[in-house]
Design a protein that fits this description.
mainly alpha; two-stranded antiparallel sheet; globular
Length: about 325
């Protein structure tokens, strides 16, 4: 077993043992939300990090999945175990709808269209009060039950392990994506779109596939979140939710497999530790993120490589003369 594999196994082992070590309901809740955030941000990293497409509708997919799960399981009587498939299907359909107008767009225009899509969804939710609950949100969503076992029992331990399994699958899928021909095409379009298209890469097809693949993760997380808190709120479409996810992604490091995971968990821990500071904790967190990105542009995931580079440079410098050896 390599050193990297050992670290990964230890990391997930610690997460798996956390509910056994602590049965505090608040820690359990924060842990579940952090794991779901890690799934959402990892999915956003597919389009924004690996694909270089500023898809600001990604958090709208999370909210759409939550509302779709709630409406179909509560209003139309779908079984609760279908929540995750419903969320994924709804998010993927939404991603295809929003992707069609941005197939040939670049830069700020992609941001405007994708962000506008989220605001259109918000207005639909607010106006269709009889279906979505309007300003009050959609509440009393049925909790997840499988073979008679409620995932809310044992202080929501079922939801914790469901989110953990979801995170493991997310890491596996994104690691496959990064080294697959599909991922290579996405990266090629990010680096030089004109050259990639001239070499035969179908821009429209790859971008549609990228949006659809990245939407799987917020779709699953949104469904789990809705059944966990038993509610879906219009705030999910808000800008504050978007900025939190973006902060996690930048903190961890874009275009990496582990960056979004580490960024989400560290951000969640920091915000909870600094709770006594009140609203000022977000200012302190922002300063920390800027400081980390100043010295490590690739985020927390780039710290090992950054330190290795610094050590390599220091070895090349003659400590007595203050410069490299004469050649």
């Amino acid at each position: 077993m390599t050193r990297k594999s050992l670290i990964i196994c230890v990391f997930f082992a610690i997460l798996a043992l956390l509910p056994v070590v602590s049965d505090d309901s608040y820690i359990r809740h924060v842990s579940i939300v952090a794991l779901l955030y890690a799934i959402v941000v990892s999915g956003w990293n597919v389009s924004l990090g690996f694909g270089g497409v500023f898809n600001f509708a990604h958090l709208a997919f999370f909210a759409i999945a939550a509302y779709a799960t709630g409406i179909l399981t509560k209003t139309y009587g779908f079984p609760s175990w279908m929540g995750v498939p419903i969320g994924i299907i709804a998010a993927v359909i939404a991603s295809l709808i929003v992707c069609l107008p941005v197939l040939r767009l670049k830069g700020i225009y992609v941001i405007l269209v994708t962000f506008g899509f989220g605001q259109l969804c918000l207005q639909f939710v607010l106006n269709q009060r009889s279906l979505t609950g309007g300003n009050f949100g959609f509440v009393q969503i049925p909790p997840l039950r499988v073979f008679g076992y409620s995932f809310r029992s044992d202080q929501a331990m079922g939801y914790y392990y469901l989110a953990l399994v979801g995170l493991i699958l997310t890491v596996v899928l994104i690691n496959w994506f990064r080294s697959s021909p599909f991922g290579w095409r996405v990266a090629a379009l990010r680096e030089n779109e004109d050259y990639a298209v001239s070499r035969g890469i179908a821009l429209a097809r790859v971008r549609l596939a990228t949006f659809a693949f990245s939407a799987i993760f917020p779709g699953a997380a949104g469904a789990i979140y809705a059944q966990y808190v038993r509610a879906a709120s219009p705030d999910m479409f808000g800008f504050s939710f978007l900025t939190i996810a973006l902060s996690m992604l930048l903190l961890g490091g874009v275009a990496t497999v582990w960056g979004p995971v580490v960024g989400a968990l560290v951000f969640a821990i920091l915000t909870e530790v600094m709770t006594p500071l009140g609203p000022g904790r977000y200012l302190v967190t922002a300063v920390l993120i800027v400081a980390i990105l100043r010295f490590f542009p690739k985020g927390l995931a780039g710290i090992p490589d950054g330190l290795a580079t610094w050590r390599a440079r220091s070895r090349k410098i003659d400590p007595a003369k203050g410069h490299g050896p004469n050649v």
